[in-house]
Structures
1.
Amino acid sequence: MEKMLSSQERKRLQGIMIKAFKNEIQNLTPELQYILTDDLVTALQNRLTVFQRIQTKTTL
């Protein structure tokens, strides 16, 4: 996951998150839903990168 997600991958993950959090974000405007899910995708990517670095260090 060290590589950046492609535009298509980000959109796919955002779609999954919109579906998963449909009830929680339904009161937000579509623009705010996009911003929130984009932030969630970025946070997920960053967290996975950190975990992979930790795992690499512990397996050496």
2.
Amino acid sequence: MSDPSRPDEPKPIGDAHSLFPTDELPVTPRPSASVGTPSTEGYDLEGGPIADDDTLPEPVPIPIPTRPANRPKPPARPKLEFERADPEGSSEFESEVSEVDPVWTRWAEWGPDLTRIGAVGLGTLFLAWLLSGNLMTAFLVFLLGLAVMVVLSYPILVTLERPVRITPEQAVTDFFAAASHHLPHFRRMWLLLSVQGRDSGRFQSFEQFRDQWQSRISGWRQSKGVGKYAPLKFEVEGFRADKSTGKETSKADYTVLVYLRDREVDGPIETFKMVHGLVKGPDKMWYLNRGTLENRSR
């Protein structure tokens, strides 16, 4: 700070008093409000007064689509009606109650085939080892054994899909689908029958059941003049059954048409009208109480 007794001494730099002729800072006058205009703080917004918070905008109406007048309705499909043994579909059919023993399993269906394939494979390896001194002969034996194993695998290849029989119609369809091959899978058909179904024909064992079906299929093939390995097609039509939900038995009627595969335009070889019951097994799947084709309708 400068000494007042020495007026000629220059004032230090940074002293704000040196910028003015006196030692007092000037006072900047505040602008006064305009005459006739009250002084208010803040700013006015253009566009009119601000709406009160409690005031909501008018709702925008949503157009409601109108249904075209005089729109034609599709014709109702006729319902298939038939006389049921149990009109209400609420009671069991005592005449259709049967045991299921054994139930269908993969091993019961494929076990014998897997055993034969394994035996042929082991025999082929054993012969190839005995003939290992002659590589050409051992190789031919190996190829022959491999070809036999492929042929023996045919019943497994045509039944890779599990027979899921949650409804009686699925059980009937899977039963006849097992016969619609070059080599019908009679063992699957046998396993899809209940005890009553295995007693429904002139057979007492699986071998008799297989021979009876094989004889019928051979006769149909001969009637069409085709080879003994020509596949047939068993088609199920017009299936109708009583209500089976929550029940252990069901009664069904349907028609089985026997065709020569790829020659369906020639018409069915034979037609059978089937009426029989089905029973639910311990595995909660349905089994047929009949394993033969008898009541021929045409």
3.
Amino acid sequence: MILSIMIKSICLKTTEADDVEVAVAEITGQLAREKLLRYSVGIITCFADFVSSGVVAALSEQLPFPIVGTTTLAAASNGFQGEIVLILTALTSDDVEFTLGVTGAITDEDEAPLMVAWEAATAGKPGKPSLMLSFAPLLLNVAADFYAEVWSRISGNVPNFGTLAVDHNQDYHESQTILGKEAFRDRYVFVLFYGSLEPEFFVGGLSEEKAFREKGVVTSSQGNLLKEVNGLPVADYLSSLGLEKDKNGVFKGINSFPFILNYNDGMPPVIRVMFAITPDGSAVCGGKIPKGATLAVGVINSEEVLTISSEVLQKAKKRALAGGKSLLIFSCVGRYFAQGFNTTAEMDKTQEILGDTPFHLCYSGTELCPMTGKDGKITNRSHNDTIIVCVV
């Protein structure tokens, strides 16, 4: 049963990335028409230009609540969407308290910065948080699985919902997390929700029905490097399924064929994108591929993105309407690019399905979202090429 504790969401937005005064006036003008409750926090997602121009820092000084968030390459809320946009959702409540946290610089997969930040954020707080909302840096040498697993261990398995920062550049060099006036390339920012809150989560990856029929077993792997499937080098396994190589021996559109990965631990499958095939025939993937896992090769394209998103959003909307709640949505940049020239298709579909149901969507480098097993227990997992929804 979902408790009737209320978190009200107030959506504020602007397209003014250059003129700081105009942008601040637009946001504060919209907020002036609303009433804040006892506790409030602002969730911000924006094009990187809003950080470099000083808009985000100026907003932090003018707003009556703290702000946290991330850069992105596109975002949407009710009746508003685009690329060069800033969307700020104020979450406000008389019952749920929000506590902010930030790690020190993260340089590798060292637990210490996370532990220090957790201890600082939870000091003096009674009990465990009911939800952790995460904004993680996109770092080449730190896997999203590391974040999901370590935070679970540190927090005692508090549900962790969030995203890895991205931006509009091919190498994502302006991707940043945000806390107040500051933006970071290498720090993890989070919000802890304290109160008898029962958030609900919805995950949509790829359809197993549309995947290649043959399934394989991971027989050799190391972290996110998949070496063998069914005893074969991954390149040979992919060739056996009929995937074609170009004249240089490179598989065509490898990013369009993610793995649907089942850990065989009673949890639903997760998606793992392939980034590249190494000279020895191994696959570099977007997350850990444990030995013994079962996989199928899926397909991601515009039709698949819209089909899966529609199914997930319709389910989430029913739960939101049942409790007067709002939706926080992160969708992978892989889904954005899979839409081809019509890059707004998923945002358009979201607007169509959700209508007046309050929502905030942005595109993500990797998605962090709990999954529920057959035994009813949750496990925090990282996801690729996935849309995730938190109803809160």
